[in-house]
What does this fold into?
Amino acid sequence: MHPDTHLVIQLQTLDQRSVALEREVAALPKHIAVIEKTLESHLRKLEADKAALSANQKDRKRLEADIQVHEQKISKLKDQMLGAKTNEQYRAFQHEIAYIEAEIRKAEDRILELMSESEKLEGNVKTAEASLKEEKQVVETEKTQARERTAADQAQLDQIREERKQAASKLPPATLRDYDRIRKKWSGVVIAEAVGNRCTACQIVLRPQYMQDLKRGEELMFCESCGRFLYYNPPVNVEDGTRVAM
It folds into this structure.
């Protein structure tokens, strides 16, 4: 195996860890934004139910006040009926009283409807308030955990970047340029092992002569199909743990 192979593998491992951490760091704020948006929508729904409940109560009070006014009118009309001098006047009073009584019944029916609606709204408000109390605690906990995780990830990233810098400095400039080119082309998978005369990355069968050159490890070699770095690891002798030359 060529001496630079281990450095390339190390560099690839560091880059893959770095990418995974960067993705996690980027994903955490998005996750927090989603749960905060959900919480906000639940808060808006609660406020809407509270507003509807308040409007319901105002309507009931208004209708109850209207009924009281109507009843006072009926009382006055009945007093006035006693002084009616003609049948026409008497019937006019009766007609007006009947009209007001009908208005009272409408108001009473509407009050019953509002009471039914109010029960549902009150239940929604109580349930939402209890749920939101728990949800706020969950959101705050997740935000705290996200901040802690981000700080930890960032610390790991700083360490990995320093390790990468040191590993990259040990590679020949030309090899490092090849590494960066291959990494860009293959989304981070730069080096692969040759197993069973195949490149384990692209699964293409390697030429016998190519395999012989790869086994000698005199230079870093590229897969003739996918262009990645390739390396060969001799099989291990299970009896003494040594590599078997092939």
Remarks:
- The chain has two domains: 14-169, 173-231.
- The first helix runs from residue 4 to 81.
- The beta strands are 191-195, 198-199, 221-222, 229-231.
- The radius of gyration is 41 Å.
